[in-house]
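Continuing the series of single-chain predictions for the mutant panel. This is the parent chain; the variants come on the following pages.
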Amino acid sequence: MSKLYIFLLTDLFAVSLAVFANAAEEKKEYAVIFSSGELPSAKLLESADLSVSDKYVCKYELTTENAEVGKNVLKATLTRKKDKFGVLNPKNPDWNKWDGFKCKVYNPQDFSIKLSFVVRDRDLGYGKPGGNDWDARCDITKVISPGWNELEIDFTILSINDAKDYINVKKILEWSFSGYSLDNELAILYYTDIEYFNE
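Parent structure:
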């Protein structure tokens, strides 16, 4: 086999790998891309009439702290009274084609933080007027340890808290993360881009 032929084969293989890698990168889809400047919603649902408020929305900002070079992450400052951020009326409300979404979360404290993920669909909204919204949403709890954490939310098990039915993943209304330390008034978490995935 000639050296030229081997060189051409090697070159073709390298090009094929590059094309494959680019195609894989293009197929990635995101719920929020902090690295490109996207932010969560400024206000979230607070009532059965679907009115919104920033009453419990935490302070957040884009930062290069603890981020890859050239990228931003979301820095969320959590307190007991303002402990959440999320997205109301997501740009893609149909989650049916994905198995979940994921991101990395950095906890700079020397203690763990209990994090709750809450999701609502358009069928149930915020629940019945005057009632508790617990049975109109899905809650999932995660523990964020000190350092970097891999966080995944599985869309295939989003059951409503009364366990009688599932969230309608084709009609997502709102999702949010909330959390704070039981022993400390203030805690900070850093989030990378939130990426949809399939198993």
